[in-house]
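notes to self, project folder thing:

trying the whole complex as one job this time. last attempt i did each chain seperately and stitching them together was a nightmare. two parts in total, labels are on each line so i dont mix them up again. if this works i'll redo the older ones the same way
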Amino acid sequence: MTVGLFIPCYVNQLYPNAAIATLQLLQKLGVEVVYPVKQTCCGQPMANSGFEHLSQGCDDLFVENFSGFDYIVAPSASCVLHIKDHLHSDTAPEEALLIRERIYELVEFMTDILKVDRLQARFPHKVGIHQSCHGLRGLHLAKMSELVGPAFSKPEQLLNMVDGLELVTLDRKDECCGFGGTFCVAEEAVSVKMGKDRVTDHTKNGAEYITSPDLSCLMHLEGILHRDHSHIKIIHIAEILNSAL
Amino acid sequence: MKDTGTKKHAALAEAFIQDREKADWHDGALWWIRQKRDMQANVTPQWEELREAASAIKSNVISNLHTYLLQFEANLKKNGVNVYWAANAEEHNQIIYSILKAKNITEMVKSKSMLTEECHLNEYLNERGIDVINSDLGEYIQQIDNEPPSHIVLPCIHKRKEEIGALFHIHLGTEEGLSDPTALTRVARKHLRNVFLTRRAALTGANFAVAETGEYVVCTNEGNADMGAHLSDVQICSMGLEKLVPEKKHLGVFLRLLARSATGQPITIYSSHYKKPRPGQEMHLILVDAGRSRLLGREDFRASLKCIKCGACMNTCPVYRKGSGLSYHNTITGPIGAILAPNLDMEKHADLPFASTLCGSCSNVCPVKINIHDQLYKWRQVVVKEGYVANSKALSMKAMAFTLSSPTAYQAAGKTGRWFLNYAPFAINNKFNPWYKQRDMPDGPKESFGEWYAKNGEKKEG
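result (full assembly):
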């Protein structure tokens, strides 16, 4: 099995440790990983701002970089959802469709394709999960609170395999953090209020770390935590799952 | 009416959030209703199947609207109801005025109608010497305060009881400082009782209308719609074209969903069916288009006509809960308002599709399964293409798209101080950037993953 590793632009540039953890984790799990070096971005920053028509260049480049892999895996639920829903190519429509079917967010790739049932990882801390909305309601990584049905959570399933880790229970387990791409500056007041309220939920329930399958949410929460001189840290789920014994 | 001027959602929401304690209370009150809704959904057998059925029935209605409307009209006439068709708000208001004028009526009581709010009927009639009183308690409070409703089901949810007490003190002469909800309700009730007994004309909206029988259904908790209608000589109903269900049996699906989704009640206290005038009474029904047929013609957006106005999308929306309904500067507020409003006036409402994080909670509480957050995304594309977006934004998007389409440009930019911190619209390292008002950005790491990979990637890790 050969996996094309997609490291979204902001992860590549701002959170390289999460990307390294993703690569190492997949390799530990016996996966052949290739990182196409000419990759850039999924195009979501333009598309969600209403400029989908400008993202064709990104789409074409994505198809060029990621055609032919058995799977494409990325440590970012939001970017994966964007590709799944919107990747489009006039010149290579079939390849684009195949990529949309074969792209997975890291957590769901581990639970659904690799069917990981044990991990050699230790993280002796109290951790709160921030469900990224695109992971939760887009990729269905867990049961969302809005729907009626049996409970499940893929991130929890994996975090429960980590030695020493204690998950904290939140008051609002799947509320949006308020990042929302350019929403975070266009609607600064609401965005920050939402972020602060999420941070408070984790703080008051005793989390030492906030983790998520999406770093964009975490970047926003980290910005708020840092400004408030909080002792709580953010960490991408790949870094926890890859943490050494 | 108090005017929000030309302020956009972001500015209006920011103003609401300034009162932190009140904003937290507002958020908590609506979240509590969302939780009540969840409790009801979880104990209602086949909840998800009910949503699916409701969605399918409404799809059928909007796909065959022409046929159902004609059937409904024929049955209304058979039942002795006068039927009118209004293409827009102006026509709607004129029709109502002419009905009232013919009877020399100068006072009307009104309830359960967002449509007449949308048409600004009260103002229209006031200018022509006809007084209108909204009899739903929340609407009544909003009317006293000369402010539009902030929520379609909970019109004054953005006001605390102390604010309502102060309004009653000024307008209804209650004791200063009185804010006990029961006491205030008693005062309003006493005042409204007289209104019901003296007004000869009563107008209501309709929650549902049955094509098969020509009846319409009004769901209320306060009984005020019934009180008004039963005591009136002239009963008027204003309804949007989309309110139809094909057959009476379909009401069973919608009545099980409506109140549970709206307020977490199993059902509203009253579900009143109106069909025929009493002897000596007149009934009039106005079918209003006001942009609905245009919406029907917009393929990507027509599913929004399925809306049964339960308000669940508002209660669940974190942007709504933090920033309040009045920030949407539209009669229908919240996520559903943000997808309905651009169809009415795209220029005025160009900001609303952007007043969302696209978290998707709205689409998943919606009892008729409207793809609200997908439509928000699609409206953004339309709004931008139609040119209702700042030039500066268009330019920065073009620059961004250029760099991200070119690995060479991207990598070159990335080497010097992290491209992302320099170019991403929200991350641009500049003290005027709103990101930095209340947040920090991570320091750019020493090297990007790409650079790390060039050095270490080829050797097998782990």
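what i see at first glance: The first strand of chain B starts at residue 82 and ends at 86.
need to look closer tmrw
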